[in-house]
Amino acid sequence: MSLPYGPGAVDAILFDLDDVLVPFETPGAWQWAWRPQGPLLGERRVRAAVRRGLKEWDRRRWHGLTGREPPADGAALRAHLRTTLLAIAGHPLPEDEVEAVVRRMLRPAGEVERFPDVAPALERLRLAGVRWGVATPLPAESARWLLRRIGLDAERLVRSGDDAPGVPDREAFRAAAARLDAPPERVAFVGDLFWSDERAAARAGLPSLLLDRHDAWPKLIAGRIRSLDELETGLASGGTPAGAEPAEGGAG
Questions:
Q1: How far apart are the C-alpha atoms of 244 and 231, rounded to whole Å?
Q2: Per the structure, how many domains does the chain have?
Q3: Which of 201, 207, 223, 248 could form a disulfide with 189, with the two C-beta atoms 3.0–4.6 Å apart?
């Protein structure tokens, strides 16, 4: 089966995992990662630091994709988490404490928060007979654990941070589409970052949607949804078309 996408159709959906299907950089997750040595974290402070950090991480991944910086690998992801942690703390931290918190963020355990729109959206895809899979820069072990923890099949993971190349590399997106048994132009990617998810996927030949749960890109109109409740509507209206080669600026 397929779903309408603008003037065409898509046969499968490729989802980003962290902060699309599973909440990842949340106040609760940072609090858990900082235990037992950490302070009680203020929710507003954490959310502000995470929002700034994700914007920088988005640019870092995009610059790695376009050659302005080295590709954003696992070490770059750890650097992003370190920077966010220090912004949350508001002061320097001992190196061993920083390393411990980042390691726990990348190896989650215990309770996992859930987005209420995920299960209904995936059920609608099942009923429509539409294939779907998951791509993430997170390590495969962590990604599979998160999927299982929210009741999803870990085999849905088709690309992780352990694979080379990793998303948002063009070939990584195309390899993920191949795992879903569809050409790139018929696999819609749904991510939560503007440059390194939506635009990078379109650049690789996949039509794409930006899931902007926290209103981080309010200036973007086309290709933006606020919830997976809007998934089919967003697909039908068309997002960023496959093959788009954007110039930087405008939506940040």
A1: 20
A2: 2
A3: 201
